[in-house]
Write a structure and sequence with these properties.
Layout lengths: L1 H22 L8 H11 L6 E5 L5 H7 L5 E6 L2 H14 L4 E5 L12 E4 L3 H14 L5 E5 L10 E3 L7 E5 L2
Parallel strand pairs: 1-2, 1-4, 2-3, 4-5
Antiparallel strand pairs: 5-7, 6-7
The protein binds S-adenosylmethionine.
S-adenosylmethionine binds next to helix 1, helix 3 and strand 2.
Amino acid sequence: MFGNILLLIGFILLFSFGYAAISGAPWVPTWRHDTARALKLLDLQPEEKFYELGSGIGTLCVAAGHNPQVQVIGVELSLGQWLISQIRKMIGRTYNIQYRLGNLFQTNLSDADAVYFFLMPEVYEKLRPKLEKELRPGAKVVSYVWPVPGWEPVKVDKSERFPNLYFYIMR
Ligand SMILES: C[S@@+](CC[C@H](N)C(=O)[O-])C[C@H]1O[C@@H](n2cnc3c(N)ncnc32)[C@H](O)[C@@H]1O
């Protein structure tokens, strides 16, 4: 009986991991070194609302949440990563971070001041019309590794040893 329950939990975790990997990207965290680079570009201000789309175990959320005046929202489709981020939140007592279990494509971004994502490059193309429709003018966007096709970055943070970061401001 107990074995069957464990098997079922394992299956649910594996299924949601696989589903998220196909939907947006498999879980690969942003390099620790690069979280500081991303946050520097985003330059989050007090009271700003920051979204990490496909938040994994909360890499960027935790780093952004060190500033208690920033409201941080992570959206993650895979149950396992989401559970780990919730545990991290409980341990770190970071009450300005909210982790939502859900699909980033079904998350309304109209109240976002800043957005970060690290997904598969073909997903950036799919995400672009949603960002253009929902983000307010002036909202800041940082994409990791790949640029958003068709957008002109305000700044590209290039590095020889690490992936590029692309910074955009919505018009
Ligand atoms: C490459 S990882 C990046 C994780 C984290 N943002 C980071 O930089 O460390 C992509 C994450 O997006 C999640 N994901 C993929 N498709 C998604 C979707 N449609 N909605 C929400 N999360 C998704 C995956 O489960 C995975 O954790």
